[in-house]
Amino acid sequence: MLSGKGTSRVNWVAASAMHVLVIAFVIVVGFLHAKTSNLTPFMPYGVPGVFRAAAIVYLAYGGFDNIATMAEETKNPSRDIPLGPARLHVGDHAASELTRAVDWSGHTHERTQLSGSE
Predict the structure, then answer these.
(1) What is the C-alpha separation between 6 and 27, in angstroms, rounded?
(2) The model's pTM
(3) Fewest CB within a 10 Å sphere: which of 20, 68, 73, 117?
(4) What sign does the dihedral 85-89-92-94 (CA atoms) show?
(5) Which PANTHER family match (predicted)?
(6) What is the pLDDT of residue 91?
(7) In sequence order, which residues have a C-beta less than 8 Å from that of residue 70 and are 6 or more positions away?
(8) Phi, psi values for residue 2, rounded to 5°
(9) Consecutive sets of 10 residues in the chain, 118 residues long: mean pLDDT of each?
């Protein structure tokens, strides 16, 4: 008969082995069903495209982490968590619309001298 500690070790090893087997299965089946034609063109946007995509994924994970942390600290998570991203979206949309409302056709990227400054 195994002790509680021994049972815990057996369960940990068995669960770890099961996870490794499932991950290996997904990788093998993925390779068997993969189409190499999907890899052409490989990196169509080059290295800058890879870094942009990595930045998007990193920031998306950071946003998820912020929401998960916020869930632990709110008094009423079922109400507050959906409202937070919704409010953020409304603010982003308002800023975007205000930016579009400005006539940028005459705007140049050169620095303009402020009146009264030398």
Answers:
(1) 32
(2) 0.38
(3) 117
(4) negative
(5) CATIONIC AMINO ACID TRANSPORTER 5, INNER MEMBRANE TRANSPORTER YGJI-RELATED
(6) 77
(7) 80, 81, 84
(8) -85, 145
(9) 78 88 94 85 87 88 76 80 75 79 68 56
